[in-house]
Write a structure and sequence with these properties.
Order of helices and strands: EEEEEEEE
CATH topology: Jelly Rolls
Number of strands: 8
CATH class: Mainly Beta
Helix content: under 10%
Low-confidence stretches: none
Number of domains: 1
Length: 117
């Protein structure tokens, strides 16, 4: 990968899959990856139901993630989400482009948010 914000031109062609690139891995189930979406969504009736926790941040663009309980979360540039393992979710919308940074691990614990003064 030349630069995290560069992406191959083929991704813009209809029918091309999202681009998943492992940037690094570690012991156990630890993995950092870059995902490039170009209007990609999860196919109707399909769900991600992962056995690892995932932290995902949108570096460029925006996305909407839907959950099996009917709730949705919109992520804009610079926003992130922790997806606990086995929380069924799907991607409902991605911009063109949408560049993600994702961290997968057996257990992730979100940092506590500081309250404003």
């Amino acid at each position: 990968m030349e630069h995290i914000f560069n992406f191959p031109e083929f991704i813009k062609k209809p029918g091309q899959p999202e681009l998943f690139e492992t940037l690094c891995g570690g012991s156990g189930k630890f993995k950092v990856e870059r995902i490039v979406s170009w209007g990609h969504v999860t196919a109707a009736g399909e769900w991600y139901d992962q056995e690892n926790d995932e932290w995902a941040m949108v570096l460029e663009g925006e996305a909407v993630i839907g959950f099996s309980d009917g709730t949705e979360t919109r992520l804009r540039r610079g926003e992130s989400i922790v997806l606990p393992r086995f929380r069924r979710h799907r991607v409902l919308y991605t911009s063109r482009p949408c560049i993600w940074l994702a961290v997968h691990a057996a257990v992730l614990e979100p940092a506590e948010q500081e309250s404003g003064s």
